[in-house]
UniProtKB/TrEMBL annotation:
Entry similarity comment: Belongs to the nitroreductase family.
UniProt keyword annotation of Coiled coil present: no
Entry keywords, A to Z: Flavoprotein, FMN, Oxidoreductase
Flavoprotein is among the record's keywords: yes
GO MF, any single term: oxidoreductase activity
Superkingdom as given in the UniProt entry: Eukaryota
CDD domains reported for this sequence: nitroreductase
Domain Nitroreductase, first and last residues per copy: 72-128
A Pfam family recorded for this sequence: Nitroreductase
Protein name: Nitroreductase domain-containing protein
Length: 239
């Protein structure tokens, strides 16, 4: 039995098991067995497995991630969170990494991400941003910002930072949804909320907040089906 061999390390066991069973479902079982038999916490296992899996077949390793199209079509804004459920740091890390994976004009990547779990700061978002009241119940928020010192250096219109950070924001919303979390884009830019967020986070004015995205595990009912927003008349095919 692969996992019981005392002469090999847990990492080696995982590798051998993966070589035999190359699919995500079996991988979930391997992950659980490794946890039970080797006392590895999932936090320790996942970083070992992630590079192995992504190198081998580009599959996602989290057993609650979903198919891309399903994820896009079922995402919706979530504003009611389970206040008793914090978000593990590695989960937040995965979500913010999805932001960095966004496309960016001339690959300038003129962004910065603040991952906020500090209760006092989240409460300030709720108090000072009129359309972000539900940050009060959120265990975390990600603030997506443009960095003017980067986008002013871009070789053409600096305005592309808005598209770049918007693409990063959508990636973050989708990553959160695929991991079983809920989130909502709440607006900062353009308007006076930019200065509010800069003041709450003590940011200098090279950091321009595009939006604040409160994130949390949805309460029952918030997970209901997303609307189908497709409108045939808004699509033209040129064939
Ligand atoms: C640029 C932008 C700004 C938004 N600002 C807010 C906001 O300040 N507060 C809020 O609750 N939702 C905000 N939303 C979320 C929209 O209300 C939401 O996406 C829209 O109603 C469609 O619903 P859905 O996300 O569930 O599909 C914003 C969305 C976008 C794209």
């Amino acid at each position: 039995m692969l996992i019981n061999d005392e002469n090999v390390s847990a990492k080696e066991c995982i590798w051998r098991a993966w070589c035999v069973y190359r699919d995500t479902r079996t991988f979930t079982v391997i992950k659980r067995l490794t946890y039970e038999l080797c006392s590895y916490s999932p936090r320790e296992i996942v970083p070992v497995l992630d590079p192995v899996l992504s190198k081998q077949c580009g599959q996602l390793t989290n057993n609650i991630t979903m198919e891309t199209i399903e994820c896009i079509m079922t995402r919706k804004s979530v504003r009611r969170f389970d206040e008793t459920k914090p978000i593990a740091k590695d989960v937040l890390d995965k979500i913010v990494r999805a932001g960095f994976a966004a496309p960016s004009a001339v690959n300038a990547r003129p962004w910065h991400f603040a991952v906020v779990t500090n209760r006092a700061l989240l409460d300030q978002f709720a108090e000072k941003l009129p359309y972000c009241k539900f940050a009060k119940q959120a265990p975390a928020a990600i603030v997506i910002m443009g960095k003017s010192d980067k986008f002013l250096k871009a070789p053409f219109t600096p305005d592309y930072w808005i598209q770049d950070t918007s693409a990063a924001t959508e990636n973050i919303l989708l990553a959160a949804h695929s991991l079983g979390l809920g989130a909502t884009w709440t607006s900062c830019y353009p308007g006076e909320r930019v200065a509010e967020v800069q003041s709450i986070l003590s940011l200098d004015d090279t950091h321009i907040p595009l939006c604040v995205v409160p994130i949390g595990y949805p309460v029952e009912g918030e997970n209901s089906k997303a609307k189908d927003k497709y409108k045939e008349e808004e699509v033209t095919y040129f064939e």
